[in-house]
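Open question from group meeting: does this chain pack into something compact, or does most of it stay loose? Before anyone orders reagents, we agreed to write out a predicted structure and look at it together. Recording both the input and the output here so the notebook holds the full record.
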Amino acid sequence: MESYKKQLLDLRDELLAGQKAGQDRTKTVELDQTSVGRLSRMEAIQAQAVALESRRRQQLKLQQIKAALQRIETGDFGICPRCQEEIDSRRLDFDPTAPLCIACAQALEK
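Structure tokens returned:
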């Protein structure tokens, strides 16, 4: 459990640091045509949209990390809430935020 907890905390810290570094990319694009040409503005708007989507995904991952850390604290980590079976350690090694076993996750996707 401690290794998963450390991995989750490290991932959380990495995401938070990345969010701080990327805050400028999500700022509103200036519409002053004298300072930025039309194509440059379009590229800036596209880059802003990509940065906003990246930030949304980071927020989702942070929520998943928080939930996994809560499961560690309550003793539910590594147990699938749908079937009550143990989640394979290879799955947790790959993604310690995984809340479901492979079988239940695949059943939800269908």
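Observations to bring back to the group:
The chain has a mean pLDDT of 86.
The radius of gyration is 19 Å.
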